[in-house]
Write a structure and sequence with these properties.
Protein name: FAD-binding domain-containing protein
Mean pLDDT: 91
Order of helices and strands: EHEEHHEEEHEEHEHEEEEHHEEEHHHH
Pfam families: FAD_binding_3
Keywords: FAD, Flavoprotein, Membrane, Oxidoreductase, Transmembrane, Transmembrane helix
Number of helices: 12
CATH architecture of the largest domain: 3-Layer(bba) Sandwich
Largest sheet: 8 strands, mixed
Shape: elongated
Number of domains: 2
GO molecular function: FAD binding; oxidoreductase activity
Number of strands: 16
CATH class of the largest domain: Alpha Beta
Bound molecules: flavin-adenine dinucleotide
Low-confidence stretches: 1-6
Length: about 425
Amino acid sequence: MPFMLDEQPTLNVAIVGGGIAGAVLAIGLINRGINVKLYERARDFSEVGAGLGFTPNAEWAMKVIDPLIHVAFKKVAVQNSTDWFTWIDSYTANEATDGSNDELIYNMYLGERGFEGCHRAQFLDELAKLIPRQCVEFRKNLRTIEERGEDQKMVVVGCDGIRSRVRQLVLGEDHPAAYPGYSHKYAFRGLIPMEKAVEVLGEKRTASRFMHLGQGAHALTFPVAGGTLLNVVAFVNDPEEWPHSEKLTSTGTKQEAVNAFKHFAPTTRAIIDLLPEKLDRWAIFDTFDNPAPTYVKGRMVLMGDAAHASSPHHGAGAGMCIEDAAALVGLLQMVQSEMQHSKHTMSDLLRLALATYDQVRLDRSHWLVETSRYVGELYEWQHGSDPVKISREIDWRARKIWAYNIEEMSRLTKENFTRRLWKLDEALLY
Ligand SMILES: Cc1cc2nc3c(=O)[nH]c(=O)nc-3n(C[C@H](O)[C@H](O)[C@H](O)COP(=O)(O)OP(=O)(O)OC[C@H]3O[C@@H](n4cnc5c(N)ncnc54)[C@H](O)[C@@H]3O)c2cc1C
């Protein structure tokens, strides 16, 4: 039925999950006059704490959704101490902490304030300040969604993370892509007091981001907490299955990490030696084996890790959530404005908008999952140890993520939706 002109209709969006994806989407929609209710199963926004780095594409997408999101990020971001991100051979090279670069594989210029990190919980706290309290319901765990048909203006967006319930409802519980898979890597994460780290590693190795490459394992180090701590993420290849069906974390020991890095060069072994005796072990799951063939079913749509969970080897998963939000916010804004005068039904407008979203986001987000798996393997020499090949692979892949033109994505998204609308107009005429 055509829409009534005098109703001044407003779109209602139910967001499931209040992580980075859900929070940025809520802010963007609220600012565009769209009704939002965000349902989060935890009792607050910021229960999970971890470090997150944002690449330049993510910062650009924040600005497109709402410049205040970018302000919130800058408020909590920790500036890099140097402008470089360095990948080194930590396995065969004679590592030197004196600044000589015989082990250098690849050096990336981060530019002024590029790839800054923040604490996830702190960023979410800042985002929460931009969402009116009445738009959020905590302690709400989504189990199912019923299509009753009475509210044609309602959209449900699944932002419920890697083990998304909404993904199961969109794809069907029996669909293999409804569940993430083990990437056969896990990570030990730890923080080292900076004075101790400098004593062993020297100034140069502790002042900026280093990726330590080698056979069967790799480690990322970077300064956090205003340079008072060195953050260590030590990844280990694991041919076994992850033994815990419900949990993605377990406890590990330093000895296990020492064993995994025992063939590495002295500096990397020294980093591992500085870790605490008891360590958290994080299983790296992703959607690589079974990517979702679509992110949409009816008026349900997936965003962020719920749609495409990536391993963390590019440090770009959360950035991809923000790109998704920029596309979806723009489309729902167009639906909202079209609703005021369109001859089409609300269901038709939403169908076109969500099909556009699917088309615009599917390839790039699937590619991120693929490339992230690949570089994780590359860092552990599963594709050979040739430094020239490794540096070439890192270079083009990182550029493709970092240099993505968000304005262009928004323009193409709008164009795609408008074309679909014209086709529908034509269908009505004939
Ligand atoms: C070790 C590691 C390091 C990483 N480093 C980076 C990095 O440096 N840069 C980067 O960009 N990305 C990084 N990532 C990826 C990034 O953390 C994720 O891509 C991002 O946090 C996903 O956000 P999200 O909002 O989609 O999901 P989540 O953050 O998982 O949020 C989902 C929310 O939904 C809620 N929820 C779940 N189920 C339900 C339900 N049924 N009902 C209601 N609520 C529900 C949860 O409580 C949670 O609050 C890293 C990931 C890992 C594992």
